[in-house]
Amino acid sequence: MVGIIIISHGRFASGLLDAVSMITGEQKQIQAIAFNESQSPEDLKKNVEDSLSLIDMGEGVLIFTDLFGATPFNVAMRIYMESNRKIEVIAGVNLPIVLEAVLCREKEDLGSIYKYVLDVGVDSIKTIPKEIRKK
User: Fold this and answer.
1) How many domains in the chain?
2) How far apart are CA 103 and CA 97, in angstroms?
3) Backbone dihedral region of 60: left (phi > 0), alpha (psi from -120 to 50 degrees) or beta?
4) Which of 5, 33, 37, 99 is the most buried (most CB within 10 A)?
5) How many CB atoms lie within 10 A of CB 81?
6) CATH number where 90 lies
7) Which pTM value belongs to this model?
8) Is the per-residue pLDDT at 112 higher than 90?
9) Rounded to an integer, what is the distance from CA 30 to the centroid of its chain?
């Protein structure tokens, strides 16, 4: 099963994990990591590496981060570049993509999940249909 790590500023990641657990039940091989003001990027990197050691069972790990170019993403990319592990990194995490990753990670490989949730991310952003939008 593919592991999942969600990294965010503050408690956003744990909120997403809480929502996923509410919908799907308790999950294994998934962790939420908060990046707080008191932490350095090196502290965050160590936390992520520790989580990788706990949840990577050889099938790879999908790392979600909140913002492209921000510290959680930059740390995830450093780990991606330095590690020999199978890792994919996606910035701009939202509930639909984490939920879909959780639902298909036992049957699909890391590469397939990565491509699929990128499409889900784009398709999950919706607005009021123009037919009923107030002018």
Assistant:
1) 1
2) 10
3) left
4) 5
5) 9
6) 3.40.50.510
7) 0.94
8) yes
9) 9
| pLDDT digits 0-9 by tens, 45-77 | 999 999 999 999 999 999 999 999 999 999 999
At 79, phi and psi to the nearest 5? -65, -45
Residue 30 lies in a domain: yes
Contacts for 27 with CB less than 8 Å, ≥ 6 apart: 17, 20, 21, 102
DSSP states of 68-104: TTSHHHHHHHHHHHH--S-EEEEES--HHHHHHHHHH
3 state SS of 128:
coil
Q: Which tokens is 135 given?
A: 């002018």
Cβ atoms of 105 and 55 closer than 8 Å:
no
Sheet strand arrangement including 3-9: 30-35, 3-9, 61-65, 87-91
Tokens of 116: 């699929």
Environment class of residue 23 by beta-carbon count within 10 Å: exposed (0-12), middle (13-18) or buried (19+)? exposed
Is 130 domain-assigned?
no
Long-range contacts of the stretch 14-19 (C-beta < 8 A, 24+): 16/93, 16/94, 16/95, 16/98, 17/98, 19/95
